[in-house]
Amino acid sequence: MATAKKPAADKTAAPKKREPNAAFMKPLTPSAELGAVVGSKPLPRTEVIKKLWEYIKANKLQDEKNKRNINADDKLAKVFGKKQVTMFEMAGLIGKHLS
């Protein structure tokens, strides 16, 4: 029994450009705690993360030994609920502060 071969993919076709996910672009209102860090006006989730990183770097809150860890100051501790989080935890924790 012979198996059918798939036709070769056309290598001259331009790669499809990624469309941004509309859910990430929707402006969300930050809670009072998060608003103290990123501002109180509605922002897309991507901008909130960007502003958080600007704040973290401006205040030198990245752990010196392990750059993936963020040492929260008083403002960030209210958002995160603890004194140190990893950069991977951060996105999940701020989701609770956006509506």
Describe this structure in words.
Residues 1-26 are annotated as: Disordered. This is SWIB/MDM2 domain-containing protein. There is one protein chain. With 99 residues, this protein is mainly alpha-helical. The chain has five helices and two strands. The protein has helices at 22-25, 32-38, 45-58, 74-80, 87-95; strands spanning 69-71, 84-86. Strands 1-2 form a two-stranded antiparallel sheet. It is elongated and about 70 Å long.
* Sheet with most strands: strand arrangement: 1-2
How many strand elements?
2
Quickly give the structural class.
Answer: mainly alpha
CATH structural architecture = Orthogonal Bundle
SS strand fraction:
5-15%
Mean pLDDT: 86
Through-space gap between termini: 59 Å
Q: Segments where pLDDT lies below 50 for 5+ residues? A: none
Number of helices: 5
Rg calc = 20 Å
How many discrete domains? 1
What's the CATH superfamily, by name? SWIB/MDM2 domain
Q: What would the principal axes of the Cα set say about the shape?
A: elongated
Biased composition (Low complexity): 1-12
Protein name: SWIB/MDM2 domain-containing protein
Domain DM2: 23-99
Region (Disordered): 1-26
Give a short summary of the structure.
InterPro entries: SWIB_domain (IPR019835), SWIB_MDM2_dom_sf (IPR036885), SWIB_MDM2_domain (IPR003121). The chain is mainly alpha-helical.
Question: Any key phrases for this structure?
Answer:
two-stranded antiparallel sheet; mainly alpha; 99 residues; MDM2; single chain; 6% strand
